[in-house]
Design brief:
With 230 residues, the chain is α+β, with helices and mostly antiparallel strands. A 4-stranded antiparallel sheet has the order 1-2-3-4, with helices on both faces. A 3-stranded antiparallel sheet has the order 5-7-6, covered by helices on one side. Helix 1 runs antiparallel to helix 2. It is globular and about 60 Å long.
């Protein structure tokens, strides 16, 4: 029977990162044209197919370490609500259990993708959550500190041609989760602004300018504008 502390579980996820890196690149290289055509015909379904395929080797590796995990992609076990349309963040979670069905933690796949074309602005990565109950996982992911880590290097991928905005009419977009960056303190008990800096810079990379914020109950909605692409 494989017993594991959360620290050990987090270590397992770090060991799995090279498997993820090899798998997503391999599937993308092999299926790039097919996935691009699929996106043009069916939109975000192409990303689901891509994830479905590259997560199988990741799950197989974790099983080889003596744990139970389902691979693939289940849209119901995911949430997407952060960032501009060119770099939307989706988090997909996978329960990891011992061979006697005891939960040890939740593996989270963090994927950044474009809604404008089949494009990956950042490399996917894995995160470890101690929460295992569905509602607890969703609550944890609603805190920016669970998803944005200043001490983990991000691999940013090249922008597609024509991404930079050109002068024309204005277009607008809203981020209803910007307030997540204000929830909770860092591990050392201090409140810092780096998560908010990262979230706003995320929009700014694509020419979006913050024009207003509006509190909505426990949430804060942020409104952005930029010159519309022609």
């Amino acid at each position: 029977m494989n017993r594991l502390s959360f620290a050990g579980f987090a270590g397992l996820i770090r060991k799995t990162e090279p498997v993820l890196s090899e798998a997503w690149r391999s599937v993308l290289q092999e299926k790039q044209e097919e996935l691009t055509r699929m996106f043009e015909a069916s939109g975000d379904r192409a990303y689901g197919v891509w994830i479905q395929q590259f997560m199988e080797p990741v799950a197989a590796y974790i099983r080889s370490e003596g744990f139970i995990i389902k691979g693939g992609f289940n849209r119901n076990d995911s949430i997407e609500r952060w960032g501009p349309p060119e770099e939307r963040e989706r988090c997909i979670w996978y329960a990891v259990k011992t061979d006697d069905n005891t939960p040890v933690g939740t593996l989270v796949l963090q994927v950044y993708h474009s809604h404008k074309s089949f494009h990956l602005p950042r490399a996917p990565r894995l995160l470890a959550l101690e929460a295992t109950d569905r509602e607890a996982v969703i609550e944890a992911l609603s805190r920016a500190s669970a998803r944005i880590h200043w001490d983990i290097k991000e691999e940013r991928l090249p922008l597609p041609e024509g991404t930079a905005p050109e002068p024309s009419a204005w277009e607008y977009a809203a981020d209803v989760s910007i307030g997540d960056c204000l929830a909770g303190a860092d591990e050392d008990g201090q409140q810092s602004g780096w998560a908010l800096d990262e979230a706003l810079s995320h929009w700014g990379r694509y020419g979006w300018e913050l024009v207003s914020v509006v509190p909505d109950g426990r949430r804060v909605a942020a409104f952005f504008k930029r010159r519309k692409l022609v």
